[in-house]
Amino acid sequence: MATLVLTVIGDDRAGLVNALAEAVSARGGNWERSQLAELAGKFAGIVVVSVADDQRAGLVESLAAFPGLEIAVYEAIQPAADRTDAGATVTLDLVGNDRPGIVRDVTAVLSRHGISIDHFTTETREAPMAGGELFEARLTGHAPEGAELESVRADLEKLADELMVDITLG
Prior knowledge:
By secondary structure, the protein is of the alpha+beta class. The protein has four helices and eight strands; from the N terminus they run E-H-E-E-H-E-E-H-E-E-H-E. The chain has helices at residues 16-26, 53-64, 102-112, 149-163, and strands spanning 2-11, 30-39, 42-51, 70-75, 86-97, 116-126, 133-144, 165-169.
């Protein structure tokens, strides 16, 4: 059985997810997991599918000719759930005034501490009481075995002072 990771992007329109699911099903594939969203008028997503080895080439060929979407196909590697090197789970919630560089600054701290990001979502929205835009992020990840989470927290709290954001690390 082949496990494939598909990245998809195209102009958003009704029926795209169903058409993609039909293409996977037509080859006997199984849609296992996905993250899909409309972003700035574009449909974008990542989908994990499994398909019998003898159907893999046919699925890849049908996806290459898929109308209205650019689809890249990658072979899956060891799933995150099977990792044996993962230490503590890290959850980060961040809210603050939007400005360029927040994602760079936060992820730089996490990278320095060896924290691997499993899931990361960001959003900006209007701040009606204060004016301007608010930036919100939610992140889950894994720290390496033996990581000092208090040191991670201290580094993030330094950023919180610099960026005027509220950070919760759990």
